Amino acid sequence: MKILDIDLDFFLDEIAHFRKRNNQRLNQKHYIPWNTGQVECFLEDKFGLRKDSPLPGVLFTHHDEVFHWCREFKRQGNAENFSIVHIDAHSDLATGIDGCYLYIMETMLRKPNLERPIVEDAGDWQKLNPGNFLIYMAACDWIENLTFVKHHKSNETYNPLFFQNNNVETNVLQLKSYNAGIVKNLAMGTRLFQQISNHNPVFLTNPIPYREVKWCDYKENHKFDYIFLTQSPSFTPKTSDKLLETIKLYMHI
Q1: How far apart (Å, rounded) are the C-alpha atoms in residues 130 and 89?
Q2: In angstroms, rounded to a whole number, what is the distance separating the alpha carbons of residues 3 and 212?
Q3: Is the torsion defined by CA of 88, 67, 175, 234 positive or negative?
Q4: Which residues contact 88 (CB under 8 A, 6 or more apart)?
Q5: What is the pLDDT of residue 22?
Q6: Going along the chain, which residue ranges are E strands?
Q7: Which domain holds residue 147?
Q8: pLDDT digits (tens, 9 = 90+) for 9-42
Q9: CA 225 – CA 40 distance, rounded (Å)
Q10: In the chain, pLDDT over 70 holds for what percent of residues?
Q11: CA 75 – CA 97 distance, rounded (Å)
Q12: What phi and psi, each to the nearest 5 degrees, are found at residue 233?
């Protein structure tokens, strides 16, 4: 299934970081949204969308709700995985200080496959959130391939543990678990990324080709099956909400 996954915060002149999930909107004087004409040209020229041929779509408030939608989709017996083009100001691959790698590598990947999507047992700073939901989906082996169409001011620093051979330059996502306690013990020091190479993983997820591309360089027509649209109220000003109506013209909800 090919999904065009759109976060409204992409269509701003600046990027907000480390926001709480409290729906408090950004200052509209400091964060200026694109105009409707720019958004229409972007969607039609870069992705081949058409208003006279809207695609099935789903609206979300917070981006991690996509994980729950996909989990329900899988629970209904759908076997196909997701080919995702992710339009966002953030990669949502648990960059920065996100600690979900500990839960994923020490707990989640040790579960039987059918239980792996049950992630409600994650600790506070390791929980599923809008900034890491794609890594959680990768850990469930739900993603076939992933393209990040990034904001012109985006500068993501990735966690190498999420990549094949613990090397970001492979451009292949592949999560892994080690013997119990290894990652947790190494994380208590300062040389986790250097010392993890001394240990062999005991489990690997399927490799996922990953591509990061600036939006101005992107030009493809994937003939998507679904459009996902997320408001992300904590990362957008209220003035950007008008763009939801613009994007919805290309969706059949």
Answers
A1: 12
A2: 16
A3: positive
A4: 5, 6, 7, 9, 10, 63, 148, 149, 150, 151
A5: 81
A6: 2-7, 55-60, 82-88, 143-150, 172-173, 176-177, 203-204, 208-214, 226-230, 251-252
A7: 2-252
A8: 999 999 999 888 887 999 999 999 999 999 999 9
A9: 19
A10: 100
A11: 31
A12: -60, -30
Q: Are 126 and 99 in contact (CB under 8 A)?
A: yes
**Residue 102 Rama label (left phi>0; alpha psi -120 to 50; beta):** alpha
Q: Is 146 helix (H, G, I), strand (E, B) or coil?
A: strand
32-59 per-residue burial string, b: 16 or more CB within 10 A, e: under 16:
ebbeeeebbebbeebbebeeeeebebbe
**Would you state the pLDDT for residue 134?**
98
Single pTM value for the model: 0.95
∠ CA 206-211-215 to the nearest 5 degrees?
150
Other beta carbons within 10 angstroms of residue 162's beta carbon come to 28
* Rounded-to-integer distance, Cα 104 and Cα 83, Å: 22
Q: What is the pLDDT of residues 108-136, one digit of tens each?
A: 999 999 999 999 999 888 999 999 999 99
Q: Distance of alpha carbon 205 from its chain centroid, rounded?
A: 17
- CA distances from residue 177 to 64, 158, 162, 234 in whole angstroms, order as listed: 23, 18, 11, 33
Check if the beta carbon of residue 234 is closer than 8 Å to that of residue 23: yes
Q: What are phi and psi of 122, to 5 degrees?
A: -65, 145
Confidence check: pLDDT of 173 > 90: yes
Q: Which of 38, 43, 89, 88 is nearest to 220 (CA)?
A: 43
**How many domains does the chain divide into?**
1
Distance CA 212, CA 170 (A): 12
CA distance 89 to 63: 12
